[in-house]
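INPUT
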Amino acid sequence: MGDNMSKVAIIYGSTTDNTATVAKELSGRISGSELFNIADGVPSNILDFDLLILGASTWGLGELQDDWQDNIGDLAGLDLAGKKVAFFGLGDQEGYPDTFCDSVGLIKDELASSGAEFVGSIVKEGYSFDESRAEENGTLLGLLIDEDNESAMTDDRISQWLESMSTLLS
Ligand SMILES: Cc1cc2nc3c(=O)[nH]c(=O)nc-3n(C[C@H](O)[C@H](O)[C@H](O)COP(=O)(O)O)c2cc1C
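OUTPUT
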């Protein structure tokens, strides 16, 4: 690993472990990345990282996962100028087709004036939801995973997303 490699933090919030599982998978596939649970608060060394990969599930009807809800204000209060931020979200397209992975869009909105540059959007292909705050103009704001209905697609979705991120991760 060279000195120029981006330092990557993966920060997740997860209620029933699905987002945690994907976060761990990403962490295993992004060499040198560090993994944090937002339930422990915003990492004290967060400003040491170049790329923050933020992962959240969606609860209620389009609501932010609880641990993110408790801590998003602290993250949004930081100056993230010069940082890149990417997203992944866990949701249920069949049960919640109008709020699929909304948490991703909610976190992005909270960070709108943080100075961060948002990266990791990907073409929407092969999903079956109606509406999502994680979608902007036909593009997905990040990696969206549906463990409830399409767990067999998770591995490929992760691989395709990491491939699209490869220049940022090298
Ligand atoms: C009560 C309840 C509400 C939910 N609301 C949404 C929702 O609005 N949008 C969505 O995409 N998924 C929703 N889900 C699905 C979860 O986000 C999904 O199961 C996810 O994988 C959970 O991830 P976690 O275990 O990391 O918390 C809901 C699930 C439950 C049980």
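end of record. Residues 102 and 137 are 15 Å apart (CA to CA).
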